[in-house]
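Design request, tokens follow.
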């Protein structure tokens, strides 16, 4: 059935290798805009809970995807004015339905005019928490139309709830992939730094006839003196001593200038 297929397509976005959160959100909103009956534009927003100094909790936007630029402008107006169906859905954690914004101007007086300008006449927005207990993010999944009473609530409400649930799982997977990628990159950088420092220590040990601890202390002293990181000093030393046309041995000279250096 097309409803399940659309939900699977949205859920599968989080499984794509290398997909970013921004791209996943854009693809989700685009899929909903073309796949949901009566929908002319869709908006998927990722929110995070933030606790204020007074202990109050509010939701702030971490990212969002809108299928159309007008809907993006309308949402940003909602966020800055703190009025509108999307901010109400996440604030109250409930479904928010708008049959016709012109008939319901009393609900969000600061948003009505902007909604009309951007073609946001009717909408249905549902919040959905991320599936992991340690993930404090929430998404809102909204379908919008430039026509009044565009949605058959009996059909679209359960469909949007299903899409929101699949989107939350998908975006959680995207976040996990990003975390793994960051951790892998961090480990790779750490291993590279360790290798460079070990190479530099070897050069110093050979030049000065000292042990590994003394060689590392020499690297650290030069780094402190020149306000550089130890790995940067080590990299300079390795480059100067392994290049095809070595430059002047500035780092080695710095080592030899240290107090107590007796040479070899």
């Amino acid at each position: 059935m097309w409803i399940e297929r659309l939900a699977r397509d949205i859920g599968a976005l989080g499984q794509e290798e290398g997909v970013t959160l921004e791209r996943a959100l854009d693809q989700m909103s685009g899929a909903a805009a073309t796949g949901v009956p009566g929908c002319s534009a869709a908006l998927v927003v990722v929110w995070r809970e933030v606790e204020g100094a007074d202990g109050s909790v509010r939701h702030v936007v971490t990212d969002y995807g809108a299928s159309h630029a007008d809907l993006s402008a309308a949402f940003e107006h909602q966020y800055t004015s703190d009025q509108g169906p999307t901010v109400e859905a996440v604030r109250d954690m409930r479904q928010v339905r708008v049959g016709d914004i012109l008939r319901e101007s009393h609900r969000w007086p600061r948003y009505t005019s902007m909604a009309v300008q951007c073609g946001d006449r009717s909408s249905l927005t549902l919040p959905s928490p991320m599936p992991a207990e340690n993930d404090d993010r929430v998404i809102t999944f909204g379908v919008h139309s430039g026509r009044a009473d565009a949605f058959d609530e009996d059909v679209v409400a359960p469909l949007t709830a299903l899409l929101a649930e699949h989107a939350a799982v998908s975006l959680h997977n995207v976040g996990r992939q990003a975390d793994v990628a960051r951790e892998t990159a961090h480990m790779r950088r750490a291993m590279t730094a360790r290798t460079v420092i070990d190479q530099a220590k070897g050069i110093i040990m050979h030049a000065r006839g000292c042990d590994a601890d003394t060689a590392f202390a020499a690297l650290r002293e030069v780094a402190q003196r020149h306000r550089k990181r130890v790995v940067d000093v080590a990299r300079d030393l390795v480059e100067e001593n392994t290049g095809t046309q070595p430059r002047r041995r500035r780092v080695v000279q710095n080592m030899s200038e240290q107090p107590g250096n007796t040479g070899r």
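Comment from the thread starter after seeing the answer: thanks! Residues 177-184, 244-249, 259-264 have pLDDT under 50 and may be disordered.
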